[in-house]
User: Fold this.
Amino acid sequence: MSISKLNLKLHNYMLCSAASIVCLIMFSHMAVSIITGGLEHLSPGFLFEMPEMGGREGGIFSIIVSTLLILSICVAVAVPIGLGASILISEYINKNSKLSKFIYFILDILASTPSIVFGLMGNQFFCVELGMGFSILSGGLTLALMVLPLFITGCIESFKDVEDRLRYSACALGLSKLASIKKLVIPMASKGIFLTIVLSVCRALAETAALLYTAGYVTRTPESVMDSGRSISVHIFDLSMNVSGADHNVYASAIVLIAIVMSFNFVIYMLHMLYIKMEGVMQ
Assistant:
């Protein structure tokens, strides 16, 4: 190995190490700040009591309920539609066709569109045109539309990782196109699909702007999906910007949000392991 290549590798290694250390320090500082600021205020009462005084006192039970309802609607709509669309684009449309390139172009544009634009669109279409008003359903459907481009793109990339020779082998054995997708392509791409679900849900959980225009920000417990509700991210934003003396609840709410994200990641991981066991997928 020449000296120049050795120096280049050493330079890249040092650069990556420095970047990793900086990111680790920033993440550690953020985690310590959140934990020290909210852990002492985190209690069973905080999780199961209603907000009081605009969120300055009390708990976040209604906020958690609204968040889980919005997230459930988002996942229930985005996953089947996104999976079906990604199968259609990846398996049935010629990858080199103009239509395929146009679809990828549109997906890239939608994936980079600011969330507040989706919020305004969701407000006009779901809240006004369809008459849903500020509701859990409007917020969940808007989030589903927002994460669809990310989910579809991620699933397509997962399908690309399945080698074409496996598809040809399935056809040679007499499997139909649909059967090979169901029995071969989806199981082989399941790891990427489940990871894409996690990434999509994490983006939805962190969303604030889109929900301000669709789900609203009332603190009462929703009795149905047609009621308005406040997600945890919106709650954190409102307490930080509009409520003085609520810093302890802000940090405690942030801890709960992180716990929900980690819990969902664990659930998705367990579902993936169960799916692999049931289908006998080689990973």
